[in-house]
C-alpha cells in the first residue's frame, strides 16, 4: 500500500485555492507541494523507509511539512508531545537522521546533537523558521535538486509514527502507530466531518488522537483552525467564527 501517496492524492483533488489551515493561510495547493519537496530533500539525504525523522513541538505553520513528507517516503516520524522537553537519551536511542525544530530550541538542540556527534552519530537539524547560519525549512524546500520523489510500498503493519508522549518517558514504551491504525480510524470513532464544516485543531503532534483527526480532516477536505497551546485569545477568536 502507498498510504502517503493516498493522502497526497486526496490533497491534490481539493480545490487548490481552498484553505486547509484557515488561520495560517495554508491552501490545499501549498500543502502537498511543500511536503513533497521536503520528501524529495529527505531522500536526497539518504533517508530511507524505516529511518527515523524527529519533529519537535513547534509553533510554525510548517509543522505539517515533515510529518507528511515522512509519510510520503515511508520514514518513521517521531513526534513529540508539546509537554516533553529535549532529552538526549531519547535522541540517543532513536537516532533520528533528521530533526525538525522550532527556532526557540536551536541552541539546546545543537548542544545535544554535538554530544551525539561525539558518539559518532550525525543528525541533520532543520529549523522551521528562517535563521541565519542554520538550515531552515524554506531553504530545503526551494533547493531540492531532483523533481520527483520515489514512492514506497509498505505493509499495513509497518510503523509510520512513533510518539514520544508526556506520560511515556522512555523509548522502550513509546507508542508505535502502524499504517492500518490510521486507516481503521478513518471510518470509526471520528467526529462527523464534511467539507462544509470547520474544525478546531490543537497542534500537539505527540498525541495519537490529534494525528488521526488531522489526517482525517485532510482526506475529507475539512478546513481547520489551528490552535497552539496557551494562546487563548486566538482560541476565543476562533470560536467566534462558529467552529462546528
TrEMBL record:
This is AMP-dependent synthetase/ligase domain-containing protein. The keyword Transmembrane applies. The lineage of its organism: Eukaryota, Metazoa, Ecdysozoa, Arthropoda, Hexapoda. Keywords: Membrane, Transmembrane, Transmembrane helix. The chain crosses the membrane at residues 211-228.
